[in-house]
């Protein structure tokens, strides 16, 4: 018997694809998304082989998000994982352009906001719906002791503020939906250009365990993949 329905946005490679594999292994009914233009990418075949139901979502296109929510149907959604992202470069603050700042904000802050908004009716149909925003320790203001990666840091910090704000408003409305932020660690993926020392399998398994155990008391919390609470 399946645990429930889980939707991973940004599922055709890296962390997102590994989420699909681990949730499938743990007997979840898995839905994964790709940007329409990446259906021609070799990574799309990797997602197809998992057996997940595939939807098209581009975080920079709200119409694609609302269409995917409609295509999903009237099923309950138990877990929404907002995983799509952009790399941290450029690192020096003065090398970042307005386009760098805006693009990261649109994809890593506005995109998850719109996905949460459009899939809210489906999450509400679940007895205990959960929204999981994949954040980063780079989002921590109090933990920023070295600078660098300013456009990435700002977008992820805004994502955290968004998550906490929605969590408070949902609680005030007596909603049972839980909102959490997870830091996957420094995983070597295509997005990180192969940099990182955290194994993708141990990280994603750790995050899935946190997701499965999360309750409404965790709403608004920021966790590392190990379960450690991270500072804002």
Q: How would you describe this structure in keywords?
A:
alpha/beta, 6 helices, 7 strands, 15% strand
Largest sheet, in brief, is: 7 strands, parallel
Q: What is the element string, with H for helices and E for strands?
A: EHEHEHEHEHEHE
Broad structural category: alpha/beta
Q: Count of DSSP E strands?
A: 7
Beta-strand share of residues: 5-15%
The share of residues in helices is 40-55%
Overall pLDDT level:
95
Termini Cα gap: 38 Å
Q: Characterize the overall form.
A: globular
The radius of gyration computed from the alpha-carbon positions, rounded to a whole number of angstroms, is 16 Å
- The order of strands across the largest sheet is 3-2-1-4-5-6-7
Count of separate DSSP helical elements? 6
Low-confidence segments:
none
């Amino acid at each position: 018997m399946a645990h429930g329905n889980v939707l991973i946005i940004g599922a055709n490679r890296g962390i997102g694809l590994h989420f699909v594999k681990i949730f499938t292994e743990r007997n979840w009914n898995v839905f994964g998304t790709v940007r329409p233009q990446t259906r021609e990418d070799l990574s799309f075949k990797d997602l197809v082989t998992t057996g997940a139901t595939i939807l098209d979502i581009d975080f920079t296109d709200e119409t694609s998000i609302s269409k995917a929510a409609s295509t999903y149907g009237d099923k309950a959604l138990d877990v929404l994982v907002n995983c799509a992202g952009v790399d941290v470069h450029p690192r020096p603050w003065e090398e970042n352009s307005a386009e760098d700042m805006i693009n990261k904000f649109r994809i890593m802050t506005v995109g998850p906001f719109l996905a949460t908004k459009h899939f809210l009716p489906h999450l509400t149909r679940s007895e205990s719906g959960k929204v999981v925003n994949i954040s980063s320790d780079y989002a921590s203001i109090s933990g920023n002791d070295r600078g660098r990666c300013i456009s990435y840091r700002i977008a992820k910090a805004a994502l955290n503020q968004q998550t906490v704000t929605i969590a408070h408003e949902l609680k005030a409305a007596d909603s049972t939906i839980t909102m959490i932020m997870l830091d996957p660690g420094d995983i070597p993926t295509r997005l990180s250009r192969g940099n990182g020392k955290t194994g993708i399998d141990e990280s994603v398994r750790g995050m899935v365990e946190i997701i499965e155990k999360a309750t409404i008391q965790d709403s608004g919390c920021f966790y590392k993949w190990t379960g450690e609470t991270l500072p804002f």
